[in-house]
Amino acid sequence: MSIQEVARQAGVSVATVSRAFNLPDKVSAETRERVESVARELGYRPNASARTLRTQRSRVLGVVLPTLLNPVFAECLDGIAHAAAELGYAILPVTTDYQIGQEERAVDLLLSENVDGMILVVSNPATSIALQRLRKVGAPYVLAYNRHADHPCVSVDSELAVTQLVTRLAGLGHQQIAMVCGQLSASDRAQQRYRGFLQGMQAAGLAPRLLEVPFIDDAAAALADLIQGDTRPTALLCSNDLLAIRAIRAVRQAGLRVPEDISVTGFDGIALGLDLTPMLSTVVQPNARIGATSVELIVQALIGGTLPGSESSQILSHSWRAGESCGAADAGSPA
Amino acid sequence: MSIQEVARQAGVSVATVSRAFNLPDKVSAETRERVESVARELGYRPNASARTLRTQRSRVLGVVLPTLLNPVFAECLDGIAHAAAELGYAILPVTTDYQIGQEERAVDLLLSENVDGMILVVSNPATSIALQRLRKVGAPYVLAYNRHADHPCVSVDSELAVTQLVTRLAGLGHQQIAMVCGQLSASDRAQQRYRGFLQGMQAAGLAPRLLEVPFIDDAAAALADLIQGDTRPTALLCSNDLLAIRAIRAVRQAGLRVPEDISVTGFDGIALGLDLTPMLSTVVQPNARIGATSVELIVQALIGGTLPGSESSQILSHSWRAGESCGAADAGSPA
DNA sequence: CTGTTAGCGCTTTCAT
DNA sequence: ATGAAAGCGCTAACAG
Lengths: 335, 335
Prior knowledge:
The structure is a homodimer.
Chain A: H1 3-10, H2 14-22, H3 29-42, H4 48-55, E1 60-65, H5 71-86, E2 90-95, H6 100-112, E3 117-120, H7 129-137, E4 141-144, E5 153-156, H8 158-171, E6 177-181, H9 188-204, E7 209-212, H10 219-228, E8 235-238, H11 241-253, E9 263-268, E10 281-284, H12 287-304, E11 314-316, E12 319-321
Parallel strand pairs in A: 1-2, 1-3, 3-4, 4-5, 5-11, 6-7, 6-8, 8-9, 9-10
Antiparallel strand pairs in A: 10-12
Chain A binds a DNA duplex through helix 2 and helix 4.
């Protein structure tokens, strides 16, 4: 079912069929209707590959994410998909499973597929080879969640958010606050959050403690150790929601209550946190909006024929979901 | 950066460059190395659109899913992505947000993008217009999670699984079992699970009760009503994990305990259920494998030059995750 | 083993 | 308002 066939059956040239679809004004109403009707009957659908080849634009945006198994990124992708559809773009998502080498493969693939631009969440913008490559070929891209002065980024101020959170915890009387995070070197977000933690603790005059859990499967055991150690923390500040959910389980498995014995906080604001009991207390990122904003930035640049520059970076505002997993430090006295 | 440029700089014809990449054996080692080296220096990447246009195959599989916000589908997509990558295919996922009209748009889009085949989760295979269209154009497709005699499907036996679950609950002494589900008409899965419920209840000689929650936002209120009604159920058999998680919250909000006062079971086996407290008791579907198997079916057909037929349908085995949200009926006596 | 060439389906000058 | 024709980058005969 090519444009040729439609042209033949409608008794016009292929050029006219093309115009009927893409520049309806340049075709007489009569012709246009005939073409449309024939096309409909034949079930004609323009061939995207041919159009892309000819026009050098695919109307497809590439998306590079660590994983979809973490709802944060699923929510973000959802926002990307809706915003893209709204603006007439399809999306082509690729997942890296947190492996840096995969970032390059992903970018290569997307470049081969002629995407008009890319939205990516990389491990570390400062060292990412994938990003260098994008720079070199001059492809438009925007980073989501990452934060770096030299790149266009859409994110929240993680560092500030965590600092504020520490202040909040300190205000609730918590003195023993431990941060729980995944492998710090694995992402700039984790590092930013950790910096925020250090800063907040210093401001509060408290001694920071850190539990780094490189492998998620070890989280339960590591957390159990932490909780049952000599000086038990009264609050666990987790670097993301998934970790927080595991932490809550670990606390309970240890026979303690959340938040009476130990408060637990998350970071991300995944929707599921709302349905837990206790409802997750967490720093909420506007995940869908981070995605949507990234799309808008890219598309704007595409329209303007420019590259998104680092000056177009946006810090979206985060918020605090009070939830039920975080309480005052002295609530620990058995009920 | 086209094949022309590489050819020129390597001092060979474009055909040779093409062969160097696609049929390395048909090129002398020397030439091949020269071509590869030039290509590498130039950062040459074959243009997928051109290749697709020429070969009439894209090596892309389309995927149509209701949403990625439900981890079931995110897990499935993850399985699809890995299996596809393994077999040399990229994937192009589209989301329908559970809107039937979107199924058609999705299929149209994917057809336009020249996908070699599709994997879809539709609302109802029996009535899906999108499926009719696929049939008509003769595009290879496989349904995931759906189940229908006339289509190639990869799923578990939901009906059987729920029947078994009812038997299990009855064995635990539950007499008042209520099923909680989303809009029944919204998916064949929900209907199958409901049928399994009815059958199990009949076999157990129990009176079935059903709570249908068409709009997810009303779930909490509807569940509260159910729980606080005259004859409180001792077990809530939820049609999916997300619903079960909400149900657990509703029970607790009502001041009751899970599972001591009310047992709650899910269906899906999302990974997150493992981290909850109580750990979700649920029927586990091999989500990633459902995705991977779908890919394999499609690719097999692609290789064989045939369409996947309904006879290639596969029922994968489900399992039961005991969890902690389901207990015996008489455990209700206050601890 | 390598080169020449046609053509995939489409858009877009350039004519008319 | 419409048509003729070139060409996007690639692969696959076909020729040598």
